Amino acid sequence: KYIAEHFLEDAVCFNTVRNMLGYTGTYKGEKISVMGGGMGMPSIGIYSYELFNFYDVDQVIRIGSAGAFQDNIKLMDVVIGMGACTDSNYAYQYGLPGTFAPIADYELLNRAVETAKRQGTNVLSSDVFYNAMSNVNDLWRDMGVLAVEMEAAALYMNAAKAGKKALCMLTISDHLYTGESLSAEDRQLGFGKMMEIALELA
């Protein structure tokens, strides 16, 4: 709703089911739809599958917040998920004889990095927000993972299976090692740079 009201012209609400608002409007003359994706891989898994397979959507760009692992990542930095590590069993459904590596569409990734002038790299898509393992963040941090979120891996897998394009862009809302965090208002209203980058790619 915020993106539609602040960035799109002539925005029309096309979906209110389960309060998952969706709008279509124009941005710099281009027709664009924006929609909520829910929380977690089961939710984005359903929405992105239906968009790719039932509604002929060719690309989905997820935007959202993330928690930083690495010391050089600061609050409000934009991180572009080139790859999505995961602790989820989402790939089990494909019956693959190994481990699948969910990655972004390269064309979208390249354009996003050029637009944002930020380095794209791995993020973690986690099923667990409050993890009982006290050292879990250290393990991912030691592997060079930049930040943690909860949806990209499922989105990338659905896109791969459907032969479509996907990208995840995140704004750092908190740092898991410094303890810094944005206010609830900043999280809701302060992600304009990320929103503009995504709209430029659409």
Question: What's the structural blueprint in terms of helices and strands?
Answer:
Blueprint: H1 2-7, E1 9-15, E2 22-27, E3 30-35, H2 41-54, E4 59-68, E5 78-86, H3 106-116, E6 120-125, H4 136-142, E7 147-149, H5 152-162, E8 165-175, H6 184-189, H7 192-201
Parallel strand pairs: 4-8, 5-6, 6-7
Antiparallel strand pairs: 1-2, 2-3, 4-7, 5-8
Helix pairs in contact: 2-5, 3-7
Give a brief description.
This protein has seven helices and eight strands, in the order αβββαββαβαβαβαα.
Give a description of the structure:
The model has no long low-confidence stretch (mean pLDDT 95). The protein has 202 residues and is α/β, with parallel strands linked by helices. The protein is globular. Helix content is 32%, strand content 29%. The protein starts with a helix and ends with a helix. Helix 2 (41-54) runs parallel beside helix 5 (152-162). The longest helix is centred in the N-terminal third of the chain and has 14 residues, at 41-54. Strand 6 (120-125), helix 4 (136-142) and strand 7 form a beta-alpha-beta unit. Strands 4-7-6-5-8 form a five-stranded mixed barrel, surrounded by four helices.
Distinctive features:
alpha/beta; 3-stranded antiparallel sheet; 5-stranded mixed beta barrel; 202 residues; single chain; 29% strand; globular; 7 helices
